[in-house]
Amino acid sequence: MKRLRLVLILSNILFCFPAFADQSLIKPQSQGEVTFVSGGVGVDEQNAMQAIRADFNLHLLFSIKGTGEYVSDVTVRIADSSGNALLESVSDGPMLFAKLKPGRYIVTVDRDGQAIRKTVKVGGPQRTSLSFTWPREQGD
Predict the structure, then answer these.
(1) Which residues of the chain have pLDDT under 50?
(2) In the chain, how many domains are there?
(3) Residues of the signal sequence (predicted)?
């Protein structure tokens, strides 16, 4: 009986360990009052991003239209409704999550000189998701 209990305890520890390891792949950063993370390259990072998703109230996703291909190295600028920059960064992967105060924001993303701008309202505990897609490049 003691062996069975030991086996169950050890298997639970080993099963839980990867979840803790995955979260360490993504490091929160701050600019002023905005905390954010970016990543999602590969399965481990995708899992780590999903594990902390609930901690952030704005979720951005970057992809190529019609291909299912995700992109990184996207320049991201989040400004308040007056145009004052609160966050300026380059994404480490196809996902960027930010923690913002309730309000209206202007999100501008740029990939290879092709900028997309969207206005978004972020409110308290509710979460807002925006997807940004760029057209396929010629020759793809």
Answers:
(1) 1-22
(2) 1
(3) 1-21
